[in-house]
Amino acid sequence: MERVTRIINWNVSGGMLALLYAGAAAAVALSLARLYGRIRVWRRGRPGGALPSAGEAVRNLSRWVAGRGKMARDPYAAVMHDLILWGFIILFAGTTLVFLEHDTPLHFFYGTFYLVASAVIDLGGVGFLAGLAMAAYRRFLRRSARLQSSPMAGGMLALLFVIGLTGFLLEAARIGVDLPRFERASVVGYPLALLLRSLGATPEGLRASHRVLWTAHALVSIGFFAAGTAYFFRHVVVSALAVALGGRRSTGALRAYPLLDAEAAGRGGPDDLRWRDLLEADACTTCGRCTSVCPATAAGKALDPRGVVLGLADLVSRAAAGNGRAPSAFDGIPSQAIWDCTTCGACNHACPVEIQVFDKLIDLRRQLVDLGEVSPGAQTALEGLAARRNPWDYPPAQRALWRESLKLRQVGDGKAPEWIYWVGCAGAYEPSAQAILRSTAAILTAAGVDFAVLGSESCTGDPARRLGDEALFQSCRAHNLEALRASGARRIVTHCPHCLNTFRNEYWDGEGEFEVVHHSELIRQLVAAGRVALGKAREDTKVTFHDPCYLGRHNGEYDAPRAVVDAVPGMTRVEMPRSRERSFCCGGGGGQMWLESTGGRRVEGLRLEEAVATGARVIATGCPFCKIMLETAAVTAGRQDAVEVRDISEILFDALEKR
Ligand code: SF4
Ligand code: SF4
């Protein structure tokens, strides 16, 4: 009776096998040495936060794998990656089975197991080749704008394709020699063998071809092992490591930065960056998703987030090569690009391997500030903040004018309030933002909320931190913490998502001392509890909500502001194509409010166009910065009569039943 199995390494001489093993061992050693060289550079980096426990690392990886690295947002890419990854895993498992059967005392590769394994391995190979074909089509024929169609990327894809193809041809040549019936389980190899025989291939010819194909397959496989930690392939190994070692934190929480004297100031070298950033740079797949969602790139500015990450990977390469000259990230990353970032977080959100892109930009910005290379606009804002506790450089005495006109209660007037209403610098000084706090204060008063404002408020330090001046941020933080702790209140409400983010994520380590909410969250609760009475429906108004980055992406609040708009009679809400997690920045964050505009377009102008295209008469938002930026864009575009930019509190205030 025919035995259902095959002779492992049939038709392969001992010399050929020895060469394969020696070549594979040398290639793996080369790859590991290359990886070790990079690990040594990562280890030179500054502390990058605590390492997760083994359990956390496994959970990080499991979450990532379950979420398919956010790939599901792009179905084509998801299918393509699944086919390549799982096809590769199946083929690798098949090769491992062959190795175990041939080189260990284990014997299992026969009978039903053999038939099932043959079918599964062939199907895995089909998936692998199909995935590679999809990748090549997208990169070189469809020419997806965000992908790099470099010869190197093409070479890597071709190498993988040849491995898969020679594997099938090799199998077909082996089966074709005597066509055993049980090999029909090889769902690709057997039909291919029949085809070769029908085309006139003889058993002798197939036997000779098999040797040639085996050698070719071995050589390209050795090439793959040798390239396994280089360029494009590196991300396969390093991205899993980066995800496992990554931590889950609010993307709005900038990492603390050491206060350094001029001597120790960073110069963009590997020793000046965090080890985690060097590791993450090596995990980059070059997919370009970060760049495709970046508002600065869209506006034609110098910033290309992928270029920044690859610039850091290049820094690791140069440091690993150790060519004598101290490498610096500033050699390849233009300083203007570093100043262009709005810290909107769209890049972090889009990255399939969870690279914290803009954190790296801000650390580089901090190093520029340490080196005294500050953009002129940032310099003015930082000086104003240092001297007058507000980045607009308005006189401190003006901060209280709005409050006096409203006769609002201030901390110290009577007993401690339940809530501090945190006004923020924009609210205190900018006329457009003052309208927000007037309506918010009126709503809170109408609802009977026990609140007061903090008379001694200073900027939270958000602009200082994002413009790279950590010392100034720490000073703002210390000032405000003292005043807040002395207030007797334990709850803070603010209409400014930047202040909210700074309090929630950057003022307190671990559990916050204060409950901090955005005004949309509190107003939604007041409406739901029936504590504010809304008037009858007015004329139908079409409204679209612009998600502020620091409320939505950075702090996960998307529903409360929409609920407030929806509560107002007569409002019909429509969504922009990019909303919620995918929202597009207004261009005002990260200190951009005070920086010189560069590039061909204005970010806020791009967002205004998107909002106007919905046909909305009102653009609602929940951030004074967004309101100012979008209003400015409307004026610049001459559309101020066609569209109105309003905070959600203003919209609700208009509908309030005035008693
Ligand atoms: S945070 Fe926003 S502006 Fe900055 S690099 Fe990322 S996507 Fe671009
Ligand atoms: S940083 Fe992330 S999103 Fe950007 S190119 Fe690299 S892998 Fe893609």
Q: What is the level 1 CATH name of the largest domain?
A: Mainly Alpha
Number of strands: 8
Assign the CATH topology of the largest domain: Fumarate Reductase Cytochrome B subunit
The major beta sheet can be summarized as: 4 strands, parallel
Q: How far is the first residue's CA from the last residue's CA?
A: 98 Å
| Residue fraction in strands | under 5%
What topology, given as strand order, has the largest sheet? Answer: 2-1-3-4
Shape: elongated
Q: How helical, in percent, are the residues? A: 55-70%
Instruction: Domain count, please report it.
Output: 4
Heteromolecules bound: iron/sulfur cluster
Any idea what the CATH architecture of the largest domain is?
Up-down Bundle
Mean pLDDT: 92
Low confidence ranges: none
The structure class reads mainly alpha
Number of distinct helices:
27
**Cα-atom Rg, whole angstroms?**
31 Å
Can you walk through the features of this model?
This protein is mainly alpha-helical. It folds into 4 domains: 14-234, Fumarate Reductase Cytochrome B subunit (Up-down Bundle); 249-373, Alpha-helical ferredoxin (Fumarate Reductase Iron-sulfur Protein, Chain B, domain 2, Orthogonal Bundle), CATH 1.10.1060.10; 381-528, Rossmann fold (3-Layer(aba) Sandwich), CATH 3.40.50; 541-655, AF0625-like (Rossmann fold). The chain is 56% helix and 5% strand. The protein has 27 helices and 8 strands. The protein has helices at residues 14-44, 54-66, 75-103, 111-141, 151-178, 189-198, 203-227, 231-245, 275-282, 289-293, 295-298, 305-321, 335-340, 346-350, 357-370, 376-388, 401-406, 424-429, 431-446, 462-466, 470-487, 497-507, 519-528, 559-567, 603-612, 624-636, 648-655; strands spanning 419-422, 451-452, 491-494, 515-518, 541-545, 571-574, 618-621, 644-647. A 4-stranded parallel sheet has the order 2-1-3-4, sandwiched between helices. Helix 24 (559-567) links the parallel strand 5 and strand 6. The protein is elongated. Bound molecules: iron/sulfur cluster (2 copies). Residues 284-290, 305-306, 309, 350-353, 355, 357 line the site of one iron/sulfur cluster.
